[in-house]
Amino acid sequence: MTGLLSGGFAAHATPVTVNLGQSAENFVEHGLGPDVGTGRGTYAFDQGNCLFDGTNTTCTLSGAFTGTTSGFTSGTYTFVTAYGGTGAQSPIRGISTAADPNLFNYLSASGSTSMTLNLFTTGGHLVEPLVAGGAATATLLGLSFTYVAYACSGVAVAACTPGDVGLTNGAIGQGPVTTVVTFNDAVSPTTTTTTLPTGPCGGIPFEPPSFASIDCRLALLLMDVNGASGLGTYQAKLAANVIKARSRATDGGTLCRQSNVKKTKKRLQQAEKAMNQFVHRLNGSAAKRKLDPMLRPTFVAAGTQLENDVKTFRGTVACPQDAPTS
Predict the structure, then answer these.
(1) For domain 211-316, which architecture applies?
(2) Can you say whether residue 48 is alpha, beta or left, with left for phi > 0 and alpha for psi between -120 and 50 degrees?
């Protein structure tokens, strides 16, 4: 039971393939019934744990990855899908293949849809855009999902298979997935070597805070969250908070290069809010009961420090002087 994204992508000389291990979250197929023209099943997809922030929806799949290309042999990943709107019904649509009704091809996505693969290793991290503006990027060569398990709900189906779910409007099929992604990108994960200043961010000073230090620290925090299995059911939601904070801070850097101070500060405020939600989630009474008493305070401290530093930076940022280098 596999989902496949295919297209007329140009061949590249040095493709990178990474195998994303079983996701901690479910990939959800919402059956929309048979396609009028072909009779094949159609779907709307929730690609992981989805959160709506009042404007946009962000869905996350996460786990460990392996590969054979130097710099991409092992680590953790987040596969992040984002689009505008509430996600009451996902704008990401698919259709079962003619050859096998249990496989699908993507059919369409809204113009606001993006899919981004984040790879975190001991040597650094890579952010690989796979879909932007609702279309595959030039570097995406292949993307396939395979269900590890599959469960059905909603409107009853004859058999609990992706094929039958697609043919039944209102049926839902879901389960954790493994994913194979192939992309062409000459940029390996950011690394620290002996020729660089020491420190977890390659010598970038944490104080005073800057776009570069905030981005690096959020990447390190995300790596720690994804590697902390002791966070249990909190792990995916905490990762989503960090991903959102990093995305908003990155947007702020872009706006700062354009000398738009007002919007830069707004994006930093949104990043600060995401980290506030991160800390608030960990400080809830349920989290205090369920999480390891040594583990939880570590993440509370890291999140609080980042929240405070983003707030400080928001108050002092000058544009374009403080904009990150492109």
Answers:
(1) Up-down Bundle (1.20)
(2) left
Tokens of 164: 């039958």
Asked whether the CA dihedral 254, 259, 262, 268 is positive or negative, the reply is positive
Q: Give ∠ CA 113-115-117 in degrees, rounded to 5.
A: 165
Q: Over its length of 326 residues, how does the chain's per-residue pLDDT go in tens digits?
A: 444 444 333 433 478 999 999 988 899 999 999 999 999 999 999 998 887 767 778 888 888 899 998 888 888 888 988 888 865 578 999 999 988 999 999 988 888 888 988 887 766 677 788 888 888 888 888 899 999 999 999 999 999 999 999 999 999 999 999 999 999 864 444 433 323 233 456 556 777 889 888 888 888 888 888 878 889 999 999 999 999 999 899 889 889 989 999 999 999 999 999 999 999 999 999 999 998 888 888 888 889 989 999 999 999 999 999 987 65
CB 172 within 8 A of CB 31: yes
Give the domain ranges of the chain: 2-183, 211-316
Beta strands in the chain (DSSP E): 2-5, 16-20, 27-34, 41-47, 49-52, 56-67, 74-84, 93-96, 104-108, 114-121, 124-132, 135-136, 140-147, 151-154, 171-175, 177-183
* β-bridge pairing 177-183 and 16-20: antiparallel
